[in-house]
Amino acid sequence: MCSTRPSWLLLATATPRTVIIHRARVASAQDLLLRGTLETALVDRGGLIGQMRFDPLFHFPGFPTMDIDEPHGGHGFGHLMKKIPATARGHIVAVVGEAVGTFCFLFFAFTGTQSANVASNPNTGDTVITTTPQKNPAQLLYISLAFGFSLAVNAWVYFRISGGLFNPAVTLGMMLIQAITPVRAALLFIAQMVGAIVAAYVVQALFTGGLNVSTTLSDTTTVAQGVIIEMLLTMQLVFTIFMLAAEKHTGNFIAPVGIGLSLFIAELTGVFWTGGSLNPARSFAPDVALASFSSDQWVYWVGPFAGSILAVLLFKLVKSLEYDTANPDPEAALPPAGGPVNDGPRESMNPGRSSDSDATAMKH
């Protein structure tokens, strides 16, 4: 940052259990001499964080969001938001981001599913048929790609805002490993359900032929089989999220790609047999839009939630065995690529820490 105008500087000095913030005014960022015991955040005169600077010799895993008084006052929506306590503001940002992110994820996934179903029928003239008596491999592949790619892209976009969970089963898992608080989990659950339902209504209104994106068991799949299939597929997805996103490493920034691919292979396996839900919101939303609930709707709640719990148990097992000692990563001590993020969104991807903690102190 090569600004020559006066800037506000935050100096963070560490004790074994707390981080104490000091604020000073400096003439230029070039005047700073960073030491191994300092962590700084340059703040422009409008009071917004312009750049975070970290000395490579010293790193705080979770640098808290600070409430900074604007030197010259401020106006507009951003100024009003800064008057809200940091914890509440973090919840607001996460809820809005999660609702919009879930909508985007499922809008494109539902649209891809609708398109695959329509294209698999001999549509003539103004007649559009979405029902498919018998699914074909190309149709199943198209649907799987739509879900996998939509999750990868939107998780990449929104994971710094809300965590990019988009799934109540994933939210449950993140809460159980203490990556998010119960309060944040409840708020994200509501946001996910709202985003999913809105996505289903929009797809229903936008495309002709009737909404046909509901998840149903195949004629040869029993309820017990459906629950187990959904449980195992969800366990794979949630455990992938734990290892690629919740665990801190230098590859965190590319985690959404692996997460999207995990959903893709799960969909390839499950679409034919159960519809490949892995997500209660994904199965509930179309039924709300159609005002018609199937008798096996509960399968898409029990299966994914059970799978999430299994993923938590597996994650705790490998953590208790200190899996990282089996194949040490020489870069494990480095800060995650991509830089620091806002404390609200970071909560969704940081096991053992919650944004409900004091904004001026941090467990070390």
Automatic annotation (TrEMBL):
Gene Ontology molecular function: water channel activity
Coiled coil start-end: none
Membrane topology category: Multi-pass membrane protein
Keyword Membrane applies: yes
Main subcellular location of this protein, as a coarse class: membrane
Catalytic reactions on record: H2O(in) = H2O(out)
Subcellular location: Membrane
A single Gene Ontology CC term: plasma membrane
Record key words, sorted: Membrane, Repeat, Transmembrane, Transmembrane helix, Transport
Pfam families with a match to the protein in the record: MIP
Entry-linked Gene3D superfamilies: Glycerol uptake facilitator protein
Region annotation Disordered: where it falls in the sequence: 327-364
InterPro entries per UniProt: Aquaporin-like, Aquaporin_transptr, MIP
TM segment ranges: 90-110, 140-159, 185-207, 227-246, 253-278, 298-318
Assigned protein family: Belongs to the MIP/aquaporin (TC 1.A.8) family.
Name of the protein described by the UniProt record: Aquaporin
Organism for this UniProt entry: Zymoseptoria tritici (strain ST99CH_3D7)
The organism's taxonomic lineage, starting at the top: Eukaryota, Fungi, Dikarya, Ascomycota, Pezizomycotina
